[in-house]
Amino acid sequence: MSGPVKRSVTLAGHRTSISLEPIFWSLLESQADVAGLSINQFVLQLDASRTTNLSSAIRTYLVEQLMDGND
After folding, report:
1. In Å, how far are 38, 47, 57, 69, 70 from 51, measured between CA atoms?
2. What are the b/e assignments for 6-36, b being 16+ CB within 10 Å?
3. Cα angle 15-56-61, degrees, rounded to a multiple of 5
4. 38: how many CB neighbours lie within 10 A of its CB?
5. Contact 39/9 with Cβ under 8 angstroms?
6. pTM above the 0.90 mark?
7. Closest CA to 2 of 18, 17, 20, 22
8. Cα–Cα distance measured from residue 26 to residue 44, given in angstroms and rounded to the nearest whole number
9. End-to-end C-alpha distance for the chain, whole angstroms
10. pLDDT in tens for each of the 71 residues of the chain?
């Protein structure tokens, strides 16, 4: 298993870095595609409702989607 990969995204005009393992980046890209959104747009939606750090919120969302069968 590979370690976290850091990528930058733009949220509301501000650049921020997110560290996720490659499998989570792949899942995030898939979820954004299904939603018809860019990674930035999709992450912005997650950012608006998060209560933890952004990387953790993304991982939690993706695992919940897998558990619900919404991959």
Report:
1. 22, 9, 7, 23, 22
2. eeebebeeeeeebebeeebbebbeebbeeee
3. 100
4. 14
5. yes
6. no
7. 22
8. 17
9. 21
10. 679 999 999 998 999 999 999 999 999 999 999 999 999 999 999 999 888 899 999 999 999 999 988 65
